[in-house]
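Same chain as my last thread, 101 residues:
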Amino acid sequence: MNDSGKTGSLLKKIFFNKYLIVFVLFAVFVTFFDNHSLIHRWGTHQKIVEMEKELKFYQDDIKASKQKKNELQSSRENLEKFAREHYFMKKESEDIYIIKE
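reply #2:
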């Protein structure tokens, strides 16, 4: 019976320790209520990751567009091919048939 009384007393001392209480309150405050809380930082990190993916997508798109522009400006045949495929342009003596799948 003395052992359970000592254990209860020890647990009481640990849980009512002023340093532990202050630490727990500080951890709760920093995690949830601070302007720079851990939750806010995690959300900001997620936004940064998303924006970096978006940045990479647009950089790749810009690179592809520049390559296509250079290809179109390099020769008249490429420009004519592009105009025929995308804008359905034709010569006077030609007929165009559009087949939809």
